[in-house]
């Protein structure tokens, strides 16, 4: 979204330099860095959100609980913690498509989606998605939503963090819960992209 995009190599070099400086000054240890990486690779992140979505697709009672109280339903699966205390799940339907934003900063449901992507924190995205969501989805993400589908934009805050329950795709009746979870993308739970393998 911003005019200057850093390459992965540039970002990696900056991160490594910052990490080295913090360790050298005794502010943190290499073990602490490794633990943080482990947490965000294995203990929080979009793979957990995908598992929640897949469970909601196969278990109607769980889906009802998820839509009524997302934080409590996620806690049933051992998912929760910092930035996940007050989560709300909004459901996409044939007539409504939901998109998530935080217009003030970058409030985001970390336990189920991991760290927010850089574009989510970009002031340009935060302002534009509220004003012209259909245009932003099409031009910035290559994701076209039919004109007969209403787009609802949900503004997260420190008190309430939204995320999207996308619809289960047709033809997946024979897939296991684990296989269904593989179809769920981070972007589909933010509302800016389709499920894996779905057309944009």
TrEMBL record:
NCBIfam families: nitrile_alph
Protein name: nitrile hydratase
Domain Nitrile hydratase alpha/Thiocyanate hydrolase gamma: 10-193
Cross-referenced SUPFAM superfamilies: Nitrile hydratase alpha chain
Keyword match Coiled coil: no
Top EC class for this record: lyase
EC number of this enzyme: 4.2.1.84
MF terms in GO: nitrile hydratase activity; transition metal ion binding
Binding residue positions for Fe(3+): 102, 105-107
InterPro entries found in the cross-reference section: CN_Hdrase_a/SCN_Hdrase_g_sf (IPR036648), CN_Hdrtase_a/SCN_Hdrlase_g (IPR004232), CN_Hdrtase_asu/SCN_Hdrlase_gsu (IPR023900), Nitrile_hydratase_asu (IPR018141)
UniProt record similarity statement: Belongs to the nitrile hydratase subunit alpha family.
Sorted UniProt keywords: Iron, Lyase, Metal-binding
Catalytic reaction list: an aliphatic primary amide = an aliphatic nitrile + H2O
């Amino acid at each position: 979204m911003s005019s200057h995009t850093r390459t992965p190599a540039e970002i990696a070099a900056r991160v490594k330099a910052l990490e080295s400086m913090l360790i050298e000054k005794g502010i943190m240890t290499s073990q602490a860095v490794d633990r943080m990486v482990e947490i965000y690779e294995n203990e929080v992140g979009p793979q957990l959100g995908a598992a929640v979505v897949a469970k909601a697709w196969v278990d109607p009672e769980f889906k009802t609980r998820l839509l009524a109280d997302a934080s409590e339903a996620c806690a049933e699966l051992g998912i929760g913690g910092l930035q996940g205390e007050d989560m709300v799940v909004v459901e996409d339907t044939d007539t409504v498509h939901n998109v998530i934003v935080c217009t003030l900063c970058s409030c985001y449901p970390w336990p189920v989606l991991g760290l927010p992507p850089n574009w989510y924190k970009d002031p340009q995205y935060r302002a534009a998605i509220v004003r012209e969501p259909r245009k932003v989805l099409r031009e910035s993400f290559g994701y076209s939503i039919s004109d007969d589908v209403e787009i609802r934009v949900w503004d997260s805050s420190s008190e309430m963090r939204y995320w999207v329950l996308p619809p289960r795709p047709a033809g997946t009746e024979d897939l296991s819960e684990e296989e269904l979870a593989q179809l769920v993308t981070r972007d589909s739970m933010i509302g800016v992209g389709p499920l894996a393998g779905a057309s944009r």
